[in-house]
Amino acid sequence: MQLTDDYGWLSDYDAARPYLQQEQRYFESITRQWSQQARQLLQDMQQHLAAVQLDDPPEQVGPFLYFSTSNPHGPDTILRRCTASGGQQVVLSAGIMQQDAAQASRLLGVEVLDGQLGGVKLSSDHRLLAYSLEVHSTQQQAAEQYCCVVRDIHAGRLLPGCVLPSASSFEWSADSSRLFYCQPDHLGRPSKVFSHAVCQVCQHQQQQQQQQQDELLFTECDPKHFVTLTRTKDWRYVLINSHAKLSSEVHLIDAGASSSSGCRPGFQYDGSAPLLVEVYGAYGQVLEADFRAHRLALLQRGWAVALAHVRGGGEGGRRWHAAGRQLRKPNSVSDLLACLQLLLQLRVTSPGSIAGHAASAGGLTLAAAVNAAPQLFAAVVLEAPFVDWAGSMCNEAAQHVLTEHEADEWGDAAQQPQVADMVARMCPYSNLQAGVPYPAMLVTAGLQDTRVPFWMPVKYVAKLRSLQAAAEASAAGRQQQQQQQVTQGRRPILLQIADDGGHFSIGQSGGAVEDIALQYAFLITATQHVTAQQAAAGR
Asked: Which among 112, 145, 165, 388 is least buried, having the fewest CB atoms inside 10 angstroms?
C-alpha cells in the first residue's frame, strides 16, 4: 500500500521531538485545571485498594509453602516461603531486586531497572531463583527488553556468572545445572533458544566468557513466529513453543539432560448516568469482568461501568475470535455500537454521556466507533492505540516487528485487495474528517513502544487537533462564535507521552493508580462539560 500522509514526518523521532515537547507542555497545562479532582480520585482509589488488599493464598510447591505478603508501611515482599522449622524466609523482595539490579548493571554495563520485574522461575531443588528485570532502552533499542539473573537463595547472593543480558523467557533443567533461555532479535522478536551452564563454584568467572559458552539450541527464522519457553509439570521436558496467530509448533528439550456488557449492580439508573465503556476485542483475548477496586471511585460518583465483549475477543471461544478478525474485523465495531445502543435502550445512560476506554488493538475498535457515531461520546481514553491501520501495512512500516507477525490477525493488505479496501474504510486515522464534533480525547504514547510505535498515536492526535482548529477557524456568525467561546477547552485533545515507556507504560496498562486517577479526572471533567452544554441548549 502506498499512502499520502501529511503527518508522516512525525514518524521520525528527531523531526518530531519539538512537536512532542510542545504536546507535553500543553498536556501539563490542561491537566493542571483538574489536578484537584485527580488528587481526590487518587485518595479515594487508595482507600478502596487498601480496603480490598489481600495477600495471595499460599501455594505448596515441593517441600515449601510459598506466599506473598503486603507491608502497608513499606515495599511488598514479593515472595516468601515457610521453612521446615516453621519459620519464614524471604525469597524475593524489593530490596533484593534493588541490590541485584545494581550488580547486574555493573556487570552488563547497562541500566537495569529494579522496579520492573518480568518472569520468576524456581529450580527444582528450590535452591536457585531465576528472574528477569527490565533493561533501560534507548531510541535505538527495542523496549520491553529483559535481562535474567540467578540468585542462590540459601547463600543470599546473586551468581555473577549467571547474569544474562537478554532473555524473554527461561526455564530450569531438571537437575538445576542449566538454564534454558530465549533471546530476542534486534527487533525484539524472541527467536533463539540457548542453554546456559549454571556455575555455583566459579563465582568470579567473567561474564563475557560465560556468554561464549552458551549453546544455541534453536533458531526461528520465520518473522511471523515468536518463541516462548515453558516446561512440563513433571520436569521431564522444556517446551520450545514457536507460535504465530493461526499456527504453532512445539519442540521438546530433555530437561533431564532439560456481545455482552456488565454493569456493577446495586444502582438504579434513569438514563442520565455517565457511563464508562471498556472494549478490546482482538487476538481472542478475554476482557475479564473481574473486580477492579479503582472503578469504585467512579461508581460512588454515580457512574456506570460496562465491558463490551465484541467479536474478535475470546469471550465466545475461537469462533467468536474468528468472527472479528481479518475481513470480519468490522464486526468488532458494529458489536460495540450495538452494546451502546442496548445501554441507551435500557436507559442506563444517554447520548453524549458515554466515555470510552481502550488500549492497544482495542483502540482501533473504539476509535473506529467514535468515527462512526461521535455524537454518542463525551470523552475517550486511548492507551497506545493501534489507530493507523493503513500506515502499519504500508511498505515504509515493513521493518516493524509486528507487521508480518500480525497478518494472521489483521490480514495482508499488500497481497489481498479486499483487505486493503477494508483497511481504507476502517482505519481510524485515515478516516478522520473535517467538521465532525469529536469527543474530548486523552491519547497515550510510549516512545520506546515496539508493539504500537509512538508515531501512530502521535499522528492521530496531530491530525485530530488540526481538524479541530480548522473547524474553529472556519466558524461563522456571532452565534457560532459565542458557542465556540462557551465550549472552547471543554473537548481538549491531549497527548500523554512516556519518554522511556514501552507498550504498558501509562494508565491502566501500566497499572499506576496515579495514571488511572488522572484519566478518570479527565473523563469526569469532560463529561460534566458536555452535560452542562446540553442543559444550556435545553435538551
From this structure: 165
